[in-house]
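User: You have something folded?
Assistant:
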Amino acid sequence: MSTIDKYYLKASPQFPVSGTEEITENFQLIASTVSEEGVISGTVTSGTVPIAGATVKVFDSSDNPVAHTITNPEGKYTISSIVRGSYKVTAAKDGYFTPLVIPVTVSANRPTTVDISLAVDPDAALNTLYGIIRAAGTLTPLENVNVNTYSVVGTTQTLVSTTHTNRSGQYVSPYLANGEYIIVANLNGYNQTTSGTTTLSDTEIASLDMTLVANATSNTATVSGIITDNSTLLPIGSAIVALYGITGATETLLKLTKSNSAGRYLFGSVASANYVVKAFAQKAE
């Protein structure tokens, strides 16, 4: 008759005994799940070729990760101590597509075989450009910069990729064939910037950071609105609208305009600063 753990082995803390002490060590044992556990094993291949070093991962039925392992030189793997139930299994390795999960039911004290096939990613051998685009001077990362990657062959430049920077100023231009490339970066309020030529080959991942110089003419805002009658909410035409600059507690009148017949006004080319808008209307007596 065989036996199996009902509770897991647990050890007490180390303690000294020097004489006639009365030592008490109570235990709270954790129930073992060994009697409810099974094993998932199998082979990861691409076609008929075993794939060594692939990561095999097990998820529960709710897609929570449970366990993972790495295949051996023969592409084989074993994941033990999986409590019986329903699971999903998949595998991944650089240079291959990650396949859809394989549903599997694990039985207690029994092996479950799950063989996995990986398809080669034809783009895995291509190159990548990445980097950060910042504002010149302050080196603040710039978000939403339009980043165009051009292939350069002789005097011919061909657009091959368009992307945008994230809030950290980062961009990635992936899947580029061997050759020479330039990056052209654009953002409203900044001068367009073109990088130098970068040569890519042999699955290279190359960093290319850039800075953009603010354009004093285009790097401005607008201030606009509609002037209406407080009681009727009808638009007020020819209202006088003033734009004041604020420096500390001082207000300085910078621009005047009039609302149109629809009550609308617009100030253009407003530089970075603090402002307040004031409006009133007059009539002829």
In short: The chain is about 0% helix and 50% strand. The two ends are 115 Å apart (CA to CA). The longest strand covers residues 37-46. The domain at 37-117 is CATH 2.60.40.10 (Immunoglobulin-like).
